[in-house]
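It is worth pausing here to work through a concrete case rather than discussing structure prediction in the abstract. The textbook approach is simple: state the sequence, then state the predicted structure, then interpret. We follow exactly that order.
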Amino acid sequence: MGRTELSKKVRKNALETPSRSWFRGAVKGNRITYRALAGTVLTLIAGGAIASDADRAKATDKSKYTLFNRTPDGLLRDLTTDRPDTTESPFTVDAGHIQIETNLFGYTRSRPDGDGTVSDTYEFGTTNVRVGLTNSAEINVVWQPYGVVRTRPGDGSDATRSQGVGGLDLRAKINFWGNDNFDKPGDTALGLLPYVTFPTDRGNGISPEAVSGGFIVPFAVKLSEDFTLGLNGGLEFVRADDSTQYHPEYLASASLSYGWTDQLSTYYEVAGRFGTRDPRGETVIVATGVAYQVTKNFQLDAGINIGLSDAADRLNPFLGMSVRF
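Step two, the predicted structure:
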């Protein structure tokens, strides 16, 4: 996800849909107080860092595989996606393989802004193409080919309609540990995901108006055979529509996933964006969804984001799919 490309206002309220969301095998997946979540992440990371070297050595050494010397199918990790939840996973795509994750359709109903204006947003085909470079690194390209925003002013005047192409995200992901050692309760994984977002068609109401960028630190801990907790903390530098100056915004999320069977999983999430300078306050949502792994390399998913704060979109259901080659 885990990170959609809509107008800056819509992107901010929807927490980038895009999306941003993830499953390992099944589902693997900001802080209502950012400091509290940051402290929790650091505590869990410290515990994972002292994991036994003997346990890590049990995994097959796959460091020799690269983009041009792909990982054999027999050594592939379980399918791990960065959707459907907002929380990004710390796991990367195996070297030499490509994973395509698509939001087939999404609908967003906003809350009224300060003038009473409400928007309905329709998202089609936002896709994250993930390419494994090494056993612990990948690059991503995220693009929304088409979107529609219908805006209804609060003064009763005629509604307006915007449509077009969304922005373009260039991302990278590095896994520090846990890629191939995340099988038993107590195992942890940590990654780093820097990204830059570029406008493609300023003024169309869909693409962002300015370049923005930042990073996310994804962390995961396997709580039991069936429960997995994902945590994200991040920072993004954005430019307000009415300013030439950039300011930082803080991202945080927590996603608890449960595997009902080897194929079926669900997740339960809280996520937020802070420091947005929105007069309505910060953006906080809760979310839930389901993923079904049809085959080893193909997954279907659906979910819904529900806004809790005045600045958050009221409702955002979506449907998507992921496939690995």
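Step three, interpretation. The longest strand covers residues 118-134. The radius of gyration is 19 Å.
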